[in-house]
Amino acid sequence: MKKIINTSQAPAPIGPYSQAVFVNDTLYVSGQIAINPESGELITSNIQDETKQVMKNLGAILTEAGLSYEHVIKCSIFINDMGQFGEINEVYGQYFQEDPPARETVEVSVLPKHVNVEISCIAVA
Question: Which of 46, 72, 73, 124 has a C-alpha 20 to 30 A away from that of 99?
Fold first, then answer.
């Protein structure tokens, strides 16, 4: 059975998709970018602040689903400059200090709203 997860604590979708979908015990979280859900503003002043906002948005969706970062088994990171990988990884690693999930990091030419980083994840209850 499919259950749609949405929270006002993360940015509203900017297209025809849900923030996340729960199927059985697995949560599929759509890619998040650094939109502050309270102000609607993009956080792009520096890559570390941008990544922190992305992770906060993922965390809010996980919380709405009754899960936490500990439940995450896979992340996909999309960045527009592999030269920023180290700074992104530093912030990302703060959320997964023990038993980090599987992941891939892919450099792409353009992301939604011309942000620098987008992260999606899969979590299991």
Answer: 46
CA 42, 48, 53, 57 torsion-angle sign: positive
The residues with which 111 forms a beta bridge, in sequence order, are: none
Over residues 50-68, the pLDDT tens digits come to: 999 999 999 999 999 999 9
Nearest to 29 by CA among 113, 117, 124: 124
Question: Can you tell me the distance from the alpha carbon of 14 to that of 65, in angstroms, rounded to the nearest whole number?
Answer: 20
Q: What residue type is assigned to position 123 of the chain?
A: A
**Four-residue CA torsion sign, 33, 14, 123, 109:** negative
Question: If DSSP codes are grouped into helix, strand and coil, which group holds residue 61?
Answer: helix
